[in-house]
From TrEMBL, chains A, B, C, D:
Residues 46-65 bind DNA. Residues 1-25 are annotated as: Disordered. SUPFAM superfamilies: Homeodomain-like, Tetracyclin repressor-like, C-terminal domain. This is TetR family transcriptional regulator. It comes from Aminobacter anthyllidis.
Amino acid sequence: MVAKGKRDSESEAQPAGKKRDPERTRLVIIEAAREEFAENGYDGARTDRIATRTGMSKGVLYHYFSSKDDLFVAVLEDIYQELRSQNEALVLAEFEPEAGIRELIAHTYQYFVDHPEFIVLVNSENLMKAQHLERSESIRSMFTPLSRRLSELISRGQEQGIFRSNVDVVELYVSIVGLGYFFLANRWTLGVVFNRDLLGKGAEEVRLQHMTEMVLDYLRNVKSLDGKE
Amino acid sequence: MVAKGKRDSESEAQPAGKKRDPERTRLVIIEAAREEFAENGYDGARTDRIATRTGMSKGVLYHYFSSKDDLFVAVLEDIYQELRSQNEALVLAEFEPEAGIRELIAHTYQYFVDHPEFIVLVNSENLMKAQHLERSESIRSMFTPLSRRLSELISRGQEQGIFRSNVDVVELYVSIVGLGYFFLANRWTLGVVFNRDLLGKGAEEVRLQHMTEMVLDYLRNVKSLDGKE
Amino acid sequence: MVAKGKRDSESEAQPAGKKRDPERTRLVIIEAAREEFAENGYDGARTDRIATRTGMSKGVLYHYFSSKDDLFVAVLEDIYQELRSQNEALVLAEFEPEAGIRELIAHTYQYFVDHPEFIVLVNSENLMKAQHLERSESIRSMFTPLSRRLSELISRGQEQGIFRSNVDVVELYVSIVGLGYFFLANRWTLGVVFNRDLLGKGAEEVRLQHMTEMVLDYLRNVKSLDGKE
Amino acid sequence: MVAKGKRDSESEAQPAGKKRDPERTRLVIIEAAREEFAENGYDGARTDRIATRTGMSKGVLYHYFSSKDDLFVAVLEDIYQELRSQNEALVLAEFEPEAGIRELIAHTYQYFVDHPEFIVLVNSENLMKAQHLERSESIRSMFTPLSRRLSELISRGQEQGIFRSNVDVVELYVSIVGLGYFFLANRWTLGVVFNRDLLGKGAEEVRLQHMTEMVLDYLRNVKSLDGKE
DNA sequence: GATGAATGAGGCTTCATTCAT
DNA sequence: AATGAATGAAGCCTCATTCAT
């Protein structure tokens, strides 16, 4: 998906030449599956609809993937790969510590805003206790590099005396992701129980600002060390 | 479910007296449905299995609820009711501001830990864009009271000069919930991509401490007022 | 199948009253499956056609049997049961030894003539190395009683000095069955390679006479003991 | 298959020279198909697996044979040819009558033991009422020569006064084949219903001895002439 | 000639829901 | 009220065959 730079042009059903192109077909299938899984979750997705989206016959799916499960794994690998490469494009080393954190938060959040599929896919996968992810070699420890880069950023901040010590990088990253992800994933129910419209652009921006402040306040709090907690 | 104090006694198939008790039957069905939906999500849940769990026949389900959808609404209402009444049991007015926040965070988190069903059910409902919740009168604005009470707590903190001003209570509550919910909901995939075991009691406690610190640091940051953000 | 005396009336699709009768439905399904498997073998049989034969919907099959395999097991159990009870109806003890053998041969042969399904079903099962039969408790050692009765008959013949000694009853029974079964099962190919019409009543009777002679000659040959073989 | 002496070298995917050899390719395909049909029967066989076995692409199959049916015919012709030439290699004229019969029984039986495919293929074909064989010119009356040679042997025995008169050669040959074929084909189910292990070498030899005795006793029974049967 | 991608009909099985009893 | 048999529309997947390259 991420490879080949063929992305963007979504759901085109065999363009131009119409010639056979297995590589491309594979991508078209993953793309179609991604949409279908994203709109309906794993259990709600229908292989028939995936086929329809590709513009090809149902049998083709099974020519490329051995099962719905297998296809779901491929979609997960694809989308995680995409998130990671999006992350990697952000060179944290170029920023001052605080600006780096801001960028990381904003980029990550923006990815979720632009790719609501990610949330549905990952929720689906957690419902199934990550049984597909566990089968995927390429996803294991995928974010270790990011951890390291984030770690370096934090260290620089600590050396400059502007960031607290005692930061668990994974916990921090989970918070950075979670503050945005939870909001975006649960906008619909939250909107009902709080009787607020959380679906628009405005709500999204309010959220980003709030969560950025929260994370930075946490990191900046130099004195918390001598506190009792 | 939460009502009547009949909880705890799970899945008993009409005890002792054997007399027909429609109210009770209704609760038994909701209980069974809750388990089934929680383990499999909406699409993964099976009406047959729900019937089996109740120990009654499938016809009974349809006598009490007109469809799977209808049953799902009932389950959602039940579990939201439960969370709310759990929240209400915590009298925030009795606590000093900071302690009140701590209590709220801990109680809320503990509820999710004790009721993993909540997460699956709510995720399922968001996948379907809250179409069931919208049909439910009883859930609309359900958390407005909590907002008010939280608001009061914050105000007291602000009056005492220990909490920042400029706090959006809904955003704050979303963060309080989200920091724990996201972690608990996504433990499986997070565990794989970070290659960490996040499933145990230990990881749960580390999380609680981290998120408590984060929220409190945010609230305590008195100087952020003069910042531009 | 064999039970209830409801046999004979084949393939009736819910007679008279049309009332629900699970016992009867089960039998109707087995009956339909038996026909379908008999005409097409296991792999050639279609669950759709079985359903059509029952006059009910396809789902019913799965209400009574968990899979095509499971249904096949039921059919095998039914037909073996039938052969056995047919055998048991023949009281060998009432006959003189030679007449008893003649009766056994004729009855067994007649069963195959009347129930060509048996042959197809058993051939199918052997193609699959009896994997279904092995799962069936009721079929294990089903013919041990017959072995015993045949044994007694042989013994009487030996005491009267008209039957040879040294008879392996199972080998004998395999021959009695095989001489007829093989012919009936392979009539079509045999007819082609020998350019003979083996399909009619005439050929069936010629076969019976030939095989009866062969078996009896084998049993009567008192002197073979002192032979070298 | 049997032709050309190219047998033995199984399933090699175009060896050494690599030059195109249509004759050889045809044989390779038939060989592969034979294995596949033998292991799974006609309906259970898969054209994909046949292609895989040949090491060539599926298109090649359809280049040489117009359909699965067509391929099955070719396999049948091949294997019948093989049995016939195996038979022809046995020069019955060289033996004394009784020894000739023994040889014929043993050779035929051994062929089935060595070629379990034959049994599955022929059973499959009979399930389909020999519809393929009927299309094959080369198989019609294929065993007429053998009948003649067997006839001569019997005649010699009759002239020597050691064999009965009144022998129907085809019936006799059907018995000779059937006594072994039935046992070998139905070992699995027979083993279950008689609770005996019939799969080993031992059981095979016991069977051969039993059936040889039976056939010879039948032929030797000189007195049966005056009987009425 | 050769490949294997693509087709489409159809195979087995499931499932929410209805309905006879 | 209650049961669970029955329905029928789908769901996932397979497979002989065709066809673009």
